[in-house]
Design brief:
Helix content: 40-55%
Order of helices and strands: EHEHEHEHEHEEHEEEHEEHEHHHHH
Structural class: alpha/beta
Strand order of the largest sheet: 3-2-1-4-5-6-11
Largest sheet: 7 strands, parallel
Distance between the termini: 54 Å
């Protein structure tokens, strides 16, 4: 992207976890940010100081008008929350997005995806990788950043870790908790996304953006428990498949059962980066250690008690059907 160009960035997923964290940094770096959302009126009420445009990847007619005049776009759209069939919807939506981006004259696409697993990817991870492949298949320079678990208060995977670590005096550790990850702090993710916008790279390419430590899920849970001051009794067990684990996770954590199942299914094999060269490419000064990142996010959003969580679930189970009728 030329320095002489007016740097107008279309920020998709602008009301989500990563989007709301990224916006202030983009402004600090001198970008003009056009925030994209399906419901601009509601978003304006929440963030009245931001520029909002209607943008719905499942309604192609909204895409080109939102992109006109932009020099870059950040793609933070995930449709897993929409339930079954999301993989096909993501393929169709990404293709429509790329077509509109090409027609609008956008020069750079930055996409935040997931690390390729060492074994066969789950449906969720396969969809993330397919989205990156589609975006990199066009003529526009697309930079795909692949992250493992993001440490942040609104991250679904972090919420599961936080709540399990805080609420269980005794923890059963199925085989999938031995899977290794490289958790990355949200502040470092934001730096990577901003750096990718101006990265000197003419063609399309993907990069891993790993955290500074390789940790198993068990180690992540253990260290988070220690930060919380909890002495948790742990037992490794040969049962509790990822699918079955998601059912009891639904009662322990704030993450809904479909999302929990998709995330845990992705932990059947290691999610470790091939390299960490991207951090040198953007001259990132240093990644945040796990304990420091976890401590900061636990202060921002401390977990509620297990009793409060069960009470919340009971209210949902017994009263929600009546409210819907």
């Amino acid at each position: 992207m030329s320095n002489s160009e007016k740097k107008i960035v279309l920020l998709t997923g602008a009301t989500g976890f990563v989007g709301t964290s990224l916006y202030p940094r983009l402004i600090e770096q001198g970008f003009e940010v056009r925030c994209a959302t399906r419901r601009p009126d509601a978003a304006l009420d929440r963030f009245p100081d931001r520029q909002w445009v209607e943008f719905d990847v499942e309604r192609p007619e909204t895409l080109l008008p939102a992109m006109q005049g932009c020099t870059a776009a950040i793609y933070l759209i995930h449709q897993m929350g929409g339930g079954k069939g999301y993989r096909k919807r993501e393929q169709q939506s990404t293709t429509a997005f790329l077509k509109a981006a090409d027609e609008s004259g956008i020069h750079r696409i930055v996409y935040l995806g997931g690390v390729a697993p060492s074994g066969k990817p789950s449906q969720h991870l396969a969809s993330r990788l397919e989205t990156g492949q589609i975006l990199r298949s066009g003529v526009i320079s697309a930079i795909e950043l692949r992250a493992s678990m993001i440490i942040g208060a609104q991250s679904a995977s972090w919420q599961i870790v936080r709540d399990l670590s805080a609420r269980l005096p005794i923890m059963l550790l199925p085989k999938w908790t031995q899977t290794r990850l490289q958790p990355i702090y949200i502040d470092d993710v934001v730096s990577a996304l901003v750096g990718a916008l101006t990265l000197e790279q003419e063609d399309s390419r993907w990069f891993d953006i790993p955290g500074p430590e390789i940790l198993s899920v068990e180690e992540i849970l253990t260290r988070t428990s220690k930060i919380l001051g909890h002495d948790v009794i742990r037992f490794r067990v040969p049962f509790l498949s990822p699918k079955f684990s998601s059912y009891w996770l639904n009662f322990i954590t704030q993450c809904d059962i479909f999302l929990a199942r998709e995330l845990v299914q992705g932990l059947k094999s290691d999610l470790v980066a091939q390299d960490d060269i991207f951090w040198d490419r953007i001259k990132h000064p240093g990644r945040t250690p796990f304990d420091e990142a976890a401590r900061a996010e636990l202060i921002k959003a401390p977990p509620v008690s297990l009793f409060a969580r069960f009470y919340e679930r009971l209210l949902t189970l017994f009263f929600r059907p009546r409210l819907l009728n």
